[in-house]
Design brief:
The protein has an 8-stranded parallel beta barrel with strand order 1-2-3-4-5-6-7-8, surrounded by 4 helices. Helix 2 links the parallel strand 1 and strand 2. Helix content is about 40%, strand content about 15%. The protein has one domain (about 5-290): TIM Barrel (Alpha-Beta Barrel), CATH 3.20.20.220. Helix 4 (about 80-95) packs across helix 5 (about 125-135), helix 5 runs parallel beside helix 6 and helix 10 crosses helix 11. The two termini are about 15 Å apart. By secondary structure, the protein is of the alpha/beta class.
Length: about 290
């Protein structure tokens, strides 16, 4: 069963995020895709979300499809105007990609091409609406398409640090759902009880909610996120657990796997984010019992 059917039928889905290369050597991406073949439902390909120039998400998605895996590509409003965005969706469909997630993009100031000029021709809700229009057979100017794509559309909720910001993010997500988003991906989950509280509000969106499981690679990363990432809620107990572990790397993988296993009783899926440690995805899946 493909990702589209699984998400619409209410089954639990497992997504694994993989960056494209900064260059044309695709060997690492291909090896990592093959490592998890048959164990996840789709590979999520970011589209230079962090402001770092890489191979396009469409390219990564096409390579993933070539390996027989479903692909979910990120699209954002920062880098392209409405014509280019619509053209990308049509090209992605022609290359066998059937799933997109409309995401916010970090400022160019945080990337490696700080002189690049953003487009921001559309906002996220408008882009969701544009993709839904393409699915219906017309472009944003109302012209009929010669063959329509069939994209499953997702959206993302940005991190939030307090109840007021959570309410704002849920309101924005609701606007995207009304515009056509069919599933929602949340920020990373480190505190399951807090996530359950958030989920009670998020499930009112009426579409599948897929939390992100972020792999903490070290005590330093855990401490940094606890101090500087809004809403991370990484406990001192978790940091202490990693610090005292005989094998800290394995402990981090185990924590990610345990989080995935616990979320199976709450949400309709997970997105695993490893940020360069994609080779460790099989170990995380083992700890998760997948």
């Amino acid at each position: 069963m493909n990702f589209q059917k699984k998400i619409s039928s209410g089954e639990f889905v497992v997504l694994a995020e993989m960056d494209t290369p900064k260059g044309v050597d695709i060997s690492e991406l291909i090896i990592n895709v093959r490592r998890i073949q048959g164990r996840v439902d789709a590979v999520v390909i970011p589209g230079m979300d962090s402001g770092v120039m890489r191979m396009s998400a469409i390219g990564g998605g096409a390579l993933t499809r070539r390996e027989g895996m479903e692909a979910v590509i990120h699209v954002c409003c920062r880098d392209r105007n409405r014509m280019a965005l619509q053209g990308d969706i049509l090209a992605a469909h022609a290359l066998g990609i059937r799933n997109v997630v409309v995401v916010p993009a970090e400022s160019m100031e945080k990337g490696d091409h700080r002189d690049a000029k953003p487009s921001d021709d559309l906002d996220e809700t408008e882009l969701v609406r544009a993709i839904r229009s393409l699915n219906s057979g017309t472009d944003m100017s109302g012209f009929e398409l010669n063959g329509r794509p069939g994209m499953t559309i997702g959206c993302a909720i940005s991190p939030f640090g307090n109840e007021k910001e959570m309410a704002r993010q849920l309101k924005l997500a609701n606007e995207k759902v009304r515009a056509g988003a069919e599933f929602v991906i949340t920020p990373p989950v480190f505190d399951l009880e807090r996530f359950k509280s958030f989920f009670e509000n998020a499930k009112l969106l009426g579409v599948p909610v897929i939390p992100t499981v972020f792999l903490l690679k070290s005590v330093g990363i855990a401490r940094y996120m606890a101090n500087y990432e809004p809403g991370a809620h990484i406990s001192e107990d978790m940091i202490r657990r990693i610090r005292k572990a005989p094998d800290r790397e394995q402990e981090c993988l185990k924590i990610a796997g345990e989080t995935i296993a616990a979320l199976r009783d709450v949400a309709q899926g997970v997105k695993i984010q490893t940020l360069g440690w994609e080779s460790h995805l099989p170990a995380i899946l083992r700890w998760a019992g997948i």
